[in-house]
Amino acid sequence: MAAFVVAFFSASQDIVVDAYRTDVLLEPERGAGASLFLLGYRAAILVAGALTFELAGWMPWRSVYLIMALLMAIGLVASLFAPEPTVQVQPPQTLRESVVLPFQEFFQRNGSGQAVLILLFIILYKLGDSLLRNVATPFLLNKGLNFSPGELAQPKALAIVAVIVGTLAGGAIMTKIGVNRSLWIFAVLQVIGNLTYVLLAIVGKNYLLMVFALNAENFTSGMEAAAFVAFLMSLCNAGLSATQYALLSSLSAFSRDILVAPAGQWAEAMGWTLFFILTAVLALPGLVLLPFFAPWNEPESRG
């Protein structure tokens, strides 16, 4: 019951935060806004994943959870000072308007054909990265190269830093070249990041190459994630962003969590080298779809 309540309110908070970020940021601010949001998200994972176990070593778990709850006060204080988004349209007033109208508006604004392509793109864009991440740790540990947990401790910590740096770098680059071009460039870089695991699978157990592969893949993943979040924001219409962003992000989660579930079985059946090549190849369908709704030279505004 506790897990259900936490998950329910966590998902509800995500919807509100996503909608707020989408409505309050102007188009030129989306890249930086997306990267800062992801920076906070990664920092929260680091605190919740590392600090909690450190604290649990010298205090009861009850006290640890109380401290984690008190940390929510940071968000509460920030909310008091956060500016209210300026929305020109009247927000939905009924449950039907909140659920059905945003779907209709998205398809009407983009056209049925292009809307379907966009939704397909959202499913496919980070599929290759998600597949790799699903099995990366087992590959480095007992299922592949047999590194010890101790040998992975510092490289894993560096990889978290690499994700954060990549996210910030992605946001900075987007402010210069725009979201469309960033989607193209960062997807290509993600393919290169995945290919470092191909090299690692061929070479075998090599500590320096493992550190390089971990950091390269996480750095490019952070860049790609920043561009992807900014793109999702650009698809939402002001006043309807809560439902629309929830729809779009749920498709991304479907790809990240459901489609990649058999990744371990595929890796065992294909062998690690061919599997990592597959993760790189699966990054290409998203690139093929980009010209239909995010051409290299097209103006950025959508929502």
Name of the CATH first level: Mainly Alpha
> How many individual domains?
1
CATH-defined topology: Growth Hormone, Chain: A
Structure class: mainly alpha
- Give the total of beta strands: 0
Roughly how many Å is the radius of gyration?
A: 20 Å
The largest sheet, given as strand count, sense and whether it forms a barrel, is: none
Secondary structure layout plus pairing:
Elements lengths: L1 H23 L5 H27 L4 H21 L13 H16 L1 H13 L2 H14 L8 H29 L1 H25 L3 H29 L5 H19 L3 H8 L1 H10 L2 H10 L10
Report on this structure.
The mean pLDDT is 86. This protein has helices at 2-24, 30-56, 61-81, 95-110, 112-124, 127-140, 149-177, 179-203, 207-235, 241-259, 263-270, 272-281, 284-293. The radius of gyration is 20 Å and the shape is globular. The protein has one domain (2-82, 96-293): MFS general substrate transporter like domains (Growth Hormone, Chain: A). By secondary structure, it is mainly alpha-helical. The two termini are 38 Å apart.
Concise account of the structure shown:
The protein has 13 helices and no strands.
